[in-house]
């Protein structure tokens, strides 16, 4: 057991000793992490290493079995479901590997939805949505509904929706997985440039070293643990070669 203490002042997001399991299988095993305000942190590792589970715990979408998660001075891990929902709505943004758009709404309406849910006027929300769609080269999709868009276009709309609120922290879980490499690189450049210009903290989960290279720093995961680096080695011998970070 340990005493619960607030995170360092310069960390906007901080986690200590996170443990979580899925159906009895360990997904996180003692992961600790600190993220500074305005920092772009890549969470890197092979598929199944715990990246998505970590982002879900840090964003309040999932309550870890053990451990602490702090956003500024607020303990996310002890919040009620309603408090976590408000935090995600008001301060966090989320981009998943697959776009989750409302089929009845046009692209601009999907993008503007988080603003309108906050009470922003339709006119102002539409202007902001159209601006972000243009930045992501999806302006010509604005009046189309999701069924009329290509998968890559839908993902651009989902990314615009996550950025339109200017969140304090943006969680991006393999955000360019549906895109071709060239399109994905362009979208990531737009995303990271926007984050830097608006001081948005970004946690970017990826198994692609080229994507991770766009970040300020990389935290490596392997089998649900922090490691110093993830080497492409086979079997337990390869896992043993990766020393755990303190």
Description:
The protein has a six-stranded mixed β-sheet, with helices on both faces. A four-stranded antiparallel β-sheet has the order 2-1-4-5, covered by helices on one side. Residues 232-246 have low confidence and may be disordered. The protein contains eight helices and ten strands. The chain is an alpha/beta fold and 246 residues long. It has helices at residues 51-58, 81-90, 107-117, 122-135, 151-163, 181-197, 209-212, 235-240; strands at residues 11-22, 25-36, 40-44, 66-71, 74-75, 92-95, 169-173, 201-206, 217-222, 225-227. Helix 3 (107-117) crosses helix 4 and helix 5 (151-163) runs parallel beside helix 6. It is globular, with a radius of gyration of 18 Å. Helices cover 34% and strands 25% of the residues.
Shape: globular
% residues in beta strands = 15-25%
> What fraction, in percent, of the residue positions are helical?
25-40%
Contiguous runs where pLDDT drops below 50 for at least 5 residues: 232-246
Protein structure class: alpha/beta
Helix and strand pattern:
EEEHEEHEHHHEHEHEEH
| End-to-end distance | 18 Å
In order across it, which strands form the biggest sheet? Answer: 6-7-8-3-9-10
The overall pLDDT, averaged over residues, is 88
Outline the biggest β-sheet: 6 strands, mixed
What attributes characterize this protein structure?
8 helices, 6-stranded mixed sheet, 246 residues, 4-stranded antiparallel sheet
Give me a quick take on this structure:
Pfam families: ABC_tran. With 246 residues, this protein is α/β, with parallel strands linked by helices.
